Structures are given as structure tokens and as C-alpha cells.
Amino acid sequence: MRYPNTGDNVGHQPITDDRTFLKLGHSERQTWSRQMDFIMSCVGFAVGLGNVWRFPYLCFKNGGGVFLIPYVLMVFVGGVPVFFLEIALGQFMKQGGVATWNIAPLFKGLGMASMVIVFFCNTYYIMVLVWGLYFLAHSFTSPLPWATCGHEWNTVNCTTNFSRVCFNQSLSPSPPNVSSLNTSASCLEHTGLRSSVMEFWERKVLRLSGGLDEVGDISGYMVLCLLATWVIVYFCIWKGVKSAGKVVYFTAVFPYLVLVVLFFHGVSLPGALNGIIYYLKPNWSKLSEAQVWIDAATQIFFSYAIGLGALTALGSYNRFNNNCYQDAFILALINSGTSFFAGFVVFSVLGFMAAEQGVDISNVAESGPGLAFIAYPKAVSLMPLAPLWAVLFFLMLLVLGLDSQFVGVEGFITGIMDMLPPKSFLGSQRREVIVAICCFTCFTIDLSMVTQGGMYVFQLFDYYSASGITLLWQAFWECVVVAWVYGADRFMDNVACMIGYRPLPYMKWCWSYVTPVAVFLFHVVNYKRLVYNAVYVYPWWGEVLGWFLALSSMLCIPLTVLYKLLHCKGTLMERWQHLTTPIWGRHHLEFLPPENEARLLPKAEENKTTLLYESVI
Questions:
Q1: Is 431 exposed, middle or buried (0-12, 13-18, 19+ CB in 10 A)?
Q2: How far is the C-alpha of 105 from the C-alpha of 156, rounded, in Å?
Q3: Domains of the chain with bracketed CATH
Q4: Residue ranges for the binding site for Na(+)?
Q5: For residue 58, what pLDDT is reported?
Q6: Which residues are annotated as a binding site?
Q7: Considering only Cβ atoms within 10 Å of each terminal Cβ, which end of the chain, N or C, has fewer?
Q8: What are 158's strand-pairing partners?
Q9: Which pLDDT value is given to residue 491?
Q10: DSSP assignment, residue 14?
Q11: Residue 218: phi, psi to the nearest 5?
């Protein structure tokens, strides 16, 4: 059955909760000037550091090429359905942030939760960029500072004889977060020898203390790097689309160009072929291990940036009849393809490093910062023209993270400005002022992560606040609300009204059954106590602080449901029916039955002094 396209009528306005309406002006909602802008923005946001430094390690750890079987399966039953759900929901409702959930107003807590998650993510994720900037600043000397001993941060046990030193790794499962360091001391740990790269990372960059309770002093150099990074982010988004649109193509395309250059250089190095073979070598016995499937699922939800709310915001700026179904598959192909290609880049270099050191590749393979700030810098130091390759690598790392940071901060700013009453003090401020306040707030919190105990704080944020358990919780409720509260068949009809045909039935089956059940099981099975570097166990009060960060977003959903039910009049069934009835925008008029017009958003009164505050990369 074919459905008519409904055009591009987007003249409705965002609303706030409790049926009060923001008068943001009478302009139509902005749309992408070119559809490629939307594709590039999604690529920039969803394709990030996890694609480069986690997927290759998981593939190596979980059976090489065999890992692609559970990974691809999870892409089609978990990644693509939820990815498509978020984009389509934003495009259909023409709203971002909290207002997206006008489709089921009782569950607006989902929008609040995503804003809390993305705030935490913006706060700690930038530290990876800070470390990358710090390494980049130290990459213009020859020899590279981490390639030699004799510096003020080195100990008497420092060694540059890499053929005698290798890194062990923990084969215990780790969460899909950027802080899962699996680097321990060297193979000669009992002799006290330490690699110069490890000492540069721990004693110069991190100045690592003994635990979370040993805060130590603040590093002045790291504060300067932190300030510089936030200034870059601020000036890239302070004007919204006007400023961010000028850099989105560069930040999305440049990392791919560098990856291609690094690939051709990597495969030309001795030992590269052995590294690639090791990366793809199949181990069929791994398929029977539950952890392999858990790693595949968690990697999908993490790398696809599901549950952060930014995808709905990006989708809300599409034309109403844009083929978001096709876009979802294209973006999934780009995302997963990038992860797979990055494996060749990483393992060609690791193969070279293993050959140079005379050790097995399994002893140099790392995940997370262990790859970005220990294994890869170490490999670069062994190459001819080492400073050149170090500059390229850390520049790629910086740009790869910046576009994700841009969209994350912009999505949070958009949600904040949607909720501010226009006549309030903050609501009447210029956009530049609101952006500055948000960036300064995050910068202040980040000061705790540039102390000697900062790495422990960083991992606490990473493990609890914006990955793993919180994203799985968010994805679970998104599927439940759309599939069971609003109705999977009903939403499939809505999608058909936008794109002209119904998507494959497997989409609604995944929303209704497969994805929620799988996410719930992974959520229960995958939880483990937080441990740093497979050695340091966090104290009980650190765990309490971590759960406070997690529950600050997770409780938004049930508390909002409870609050709305208690403050609504009527019987329980009447309250449920009223609070789960969608609030439609005026662009829905073409296919809504007449009886639903009472639930339309009212037109904003014409007011030439008001401003349309919503913008997103």
C-alpha cells in the first residue's frame, strides 16, 4: 500500500510542559539546506573515538572475524531499529529534546533524562580531547618526549629497550567506555622496569595519584589545554548553525582522510600483514561465549550514540517527507564500516610494533586510552619521521572527538533554550550568553579531572553517568513507549505518511520485542563493579557517588510519570488516557482526523521581537 507524502509544512512551535506554550515567533522551523548536511552531522556525532579505539580491540579479543557475526546481527536487531526510531521520531514530531515526547506526554521524562546524560557526556568526554591536545603539543619535537628517558618525570626504572618490555592486558570483560584501560605494568614488572611511554602517560600527563581520595593539585598545563578546548567548542557553536555549519564538513571528513593516510603508511611497515591477519583470524569457539554477544551489543549502543537525544534533535530539522528510513541504513553502514576499517589501520601499526619489539601482538593490543595514549604513541616513536605521524594521529584524534562534542553541547543548549520562558532573565539573554554559561559550568566541573586524582573522577563519570547502564535504560524505555504506549503499528503508519511506504515489519518487531528484551538482559548481565586498570577498586563512597550520577538521569523517567499522574484530575484510566494522548503539531493537519485537532499546538501570536532559539548542527 502506498501512502502520500505530506509535504514540508513545519510551522508549529515548541511547547513546554503543563500545556504552557512558548511564543518563539511565527517563523517556520529551520530545515537543512541540503540533506548532506544532516548526513554529515550524524556521521560527525555518531562516529567517534569508540569506533577507532574500541571496536578493533573487541574484534581481536572476541575471535577476530568471527566477532563480525554477532556484531552484524546486533546492528540489525538493535542498532539500526533504535537509530531509525530516534531519527524518525524527531522528523515526525518536528521537535527536539523534551518536546519530542509530546507523542506520549506522560513520558517526557525521557527527554529530561537524555538532557542529563548529554550534559554529563559533554562534561567528561572533552577530557579525551584535552589529553589529545596535550600530546599534540608535545609532538613537534624530535625525538618525541615519550620515546626517551632522562626527563624530570622519569624514574630510575625507565627503559626505552622496547624489545624487553611488553604490556599485559586483562582479558576480563570491560564496559564500552573510553576509560577502560587494560594496561598494566611491563612483562618485567617484578624487576621494576617501566616503559618510557607509560611513564609519560601516568607521571607527566595524568600525574596519577594512589586513588580517588588522593586529589592532589591541579596541573596548570592541563588547565590551559582544557580552557583552549572549551574556547574552540564555544566559538564553533555560539552562533548555532551560522558558526557550526562552517566546520561540520571539515570535522566529519578530515578524520577519514587521515585514517586513509595512516592505513597506506601502516600497511607499508614490516610486520603489518601479521597484524592484519591477527585482527581477522577467526576463532569459532568464541561464538558460544555469552560475553562476545554482550560486547557486540554494548559496542553497538555506545558507537551509535543511542539514548543521548541528539539524533532526535538532528532528525527534527529534516524535511517532513525526507526518507529517514534510507538514511538510517546509510548511516549505519558508514558507522560500522568506519569501525571495521579502523581495525586495519590499528592492527597494521600494532603488527609493526610487535615485530620491532619481538613480542606477540596480543601483548601490544590495547583498548580505550591504552591504545590512543600508550600503544599507538609507542608505535609512532619507532617509525621514521615519528613527529609527522604523531601530529597526524593526534590531530585526527582531536578532530574526531570535536565534532561529537559540538553536536552534544549544541543539543544540550537547544534543549535548555526550549525550556527557558522567553520573559525570564535567562530566557531573554542572547544565545551567546547561554552558551558561555553552559561551557563555563562544564569547565568548572572539569577542573576536578585535571588533578592528580582526575583520572579516577573521569572514569567514575564515564562508567556511570553517560554510558553502559544509563544508555541501555534509556534505549529500553524509548522502545517501550513508542511500541507499547503509542503503538508500533501506529508509528509505522506515521513513518509511511512521511516517506511514502511502510518500512519492513522487522522494525516494529524489534521495537516491540527483540530490542527491549535484549537491552534489559544486557543491562542486568553486564553490570560489574568499577575497577581502574584492573588493580584499583573504588571505595564504597565512590560507588555511591557513581550511582548518584547514574540515577540522576535514570530516575527522571519514573519520577516524571509519577508527578504527572498525581497532578492530573480524574480516575487512573482517565489520567492515563489524557496523558498518553499525543499533542500534535500543525504540520500533522494533512493526515489527522478532525477529532484530533483539539490536541494541536496553538499558533504562536505574531511578535516581531521574539526570536527562534532552536538550532543544531
A1: middle
A2: 63
A3: 35-157+192-615 (1.20.1740)
A4: 44, 46-47, 51, 303, 335, 400, 403-404
A5: 83
A6: 44, 46-47, 51, 303, 335, 400, 403-404
A7: N
A8: 194
A9: 93
A10: -
A11: -90, 140
